Amino acid sequence: MQRRASRPVQVGSVVIGGGAPVSIQSMTTTATADVSATLGQVRALASAGCDIVRVAVPTRADTAALREIVAGSPVPIVADVHFHFRRALEAVEAGVAKIRLNPGTLADRGQVREVIAACRAAGVPIRVGVNEGSVHRSEAGRRRDGGPAAGIMAEALEAYLEPFHEEGFEDLVLSAKSRDAVTCVAVNRILAGRFDYPLHLGLTHSGTARTGLVRSMVAVGALLAEGIGDTVRISLAGDPMAEVTAAKELLWSLRLRQREGVEVIACPTCGRTRADVNALAEAVGAELADVREHLTVAVMGCVVNGPGEAEGVDAAACCGKSRATIYRRGRRVRTVPLAQIVPALVEEARRLLAEG
To answer: In the CATH hierarchy, which top-level class contains the domain 9-253?
Structure first.
């Protein structure tokens, strides 16, 4: 797909925009002042595939911990600043890779100019991130129809950018988030047509792992499919590792990133199925979780779609009443009892890996 052209912004070792791969972000849930806990979570997120990690810095104790966190992090660290502009100055001094400012929580233009000056001197970019919940809106703007609310958010962000443009500071990433998927899509379409800054996509608080995942995929997926978006965060309540897993799957599905690891396909099952397809697929995925090369493995519940599906994957099992046929790159190689499906598929997958 053709992606929207945007200017590149260097965030530590990661480039956002300018045609660079869409990067994945998440945010720690630890108290940033707890260096050990925060670094532990940052490293876990990085190992899972997160490219940039944001941390909250509400207190001086948090920014005091940043220097050690930045030094120990394998990925760029972003300081999330609200209300107190001095937290931004302290974070820049500590060596963070980017500052995030919210127009709804840091509105004083004199203070914003101080942050701009500090970031310019240190070569640190700024994300200006407006959230619908922190923007003053008229009653009309409270309507969630993708119209007025989106327009008000875009206007608020554009007005906030005035001192940046007056100071000639263009090392910027923009974001506009709502908990409503339709509003999120609408406002980012406006921004994409109005600016050439890279866009950070996400919802403010999309919800739990189940409902939030659907909302995020609708909004972020729709925008990415239109070529809009340079970096993403799939905001979910709970373990931030789930955000990274979801973001990777979204980017893989849209072919915006090269898929890694084993992709397990399973049929939705019906009355013909005599095996627990979901459990088998989960078990195969767990057994091959260490694999980094891309392989596709399928577990199919019956002979209707099974043989055809097996032709396009690396290894497949097509279940019958008591036995399953094992395929290797479309070729039928053996039959096994249903209880042996998992070891048989794992064996075929590892054999393919060994052969290169």
So the answer is: alpha beta
